[in-house]
Amino acid sequence: MDKHYRPPHYTRNRYNIYGIIHFMDLHGIDLNLLVAFDALMAERNVTRAGIRIGRTQPAMSAALSRLRGLLGDELFIRSPNGLQPTPRAIDLAEPLGHALAEIQRTLDFTQTFDPTTSTATFSIALSDHPTFKVLPVLLNALREKAPGITLRIGSFTARDDAITLLDAGEADLTIGVPPSATGRILTRPLFEEHFVCVLRRTHPAASGALDLDTFLSLSHLLVSPENERFGLVDSALARMGHKRRLAVTLPNLYAAPPLIARSDLIATLIEGVVTASGHSHHLAIKPCPIAIDPVPFALAWHRRNDVHPAQRWFRDFIAGLDLP
């Protein structure tokens, strides 16, 4: 027995048959002590164990002393052949070794990500247009590059619904018009869409150029997910001192092209919707007679996911898609 070792006073009934202390507070255990124990079991020598984990011989001796006091056992006894583990040390060696290995695997996973072998699940919520424009391309690309990954798809309508989903952890990532600025929600531009005016192909106004007077003379359809009756077009017209006549307001973007194709209405829509709707061959597509800024679409994610390797890879993968 080490001449400096003084066993603590304890009774056998304070330990279960596996030698685990019933009253031990795990919050007070230094993980480094368990690493030191694992190294001592492997090397059976204080100096070599210290080299194994990058500690000095005095630091390893101090760790062994703390382990003895913590676990109520001498753990290692000096012999001509090096340190010999006690039965309690032998009992602890395998479960502690497995636990440390699992912790190491968990920490390694947070530093690396291999999409070719990953079976991770990502939650993504998209507004109407990205659902049609991005999702088919994303699924095809994942099938080729990361076949084990699973997607859980959600949707949202109002732009700031994205913030609610990300705050609640219901989505890892959203794609839509950028939400209102907030420090905890980060964004990355993905693509933008320009506006066009669409009419039924056989509409009387479809044959010539669409000037402002003709535009104002027609009945308009407005798409407003928030069910408002004043959109970007109305703002632009108001700055010019004009106002259009709204005949229909609806919340669903992709419902507009088929309605226009079967009516005398005109709608100002983002061009990608017209193309993706499958109804463009029934429509006359005209440049807008008023200046309207393009609509940006962006990835958005919560700051808590910003540095996670898998999350970062997923964002980069989407940003690198070859979108139509």
Write a brief structural summary:
By secondary structure, this protein is an alpha/beta fold.
Global morphology:
rod-shaped
Q: What spatial order of strands do you see in the largest sheet?
A: 4-3-5-12-6
Q: Spans of 5+ residues with little confidence (pLDDT < 50)? A: 1-23
Helix and strand composition category = alpha/beta
Number of strands: 12
CATH class of the largest domain: Mainly Alpha
- Measured as a percent range, the helix fraction is 25-40%
Proper CATH architecture of the largest domain: Orthogonal Bundle
CATH-defined superfamily of the largest domain? Winged helix-like DNA-binding domain superfamily/Winged helix DNA-binding domain
Domains counted in the coordinates: how many? 3
The CATH topology label of the largest domain is Arc Repressor Mutant, subunit A
Termini separation (Å)? 76 Å
> What is the strand content?
15-25%
As a whole number of angstroms, the C-alpha radius of gyration is: 33 Å
Mean pLDDT: 89
Largest sheet: 5 strands, mixed
Question: Total number of helical segments?
Answer: 12
- SSE pattern, N- to C-terminal: HHHEEHEHHEHEEEHEHEHEHEEH
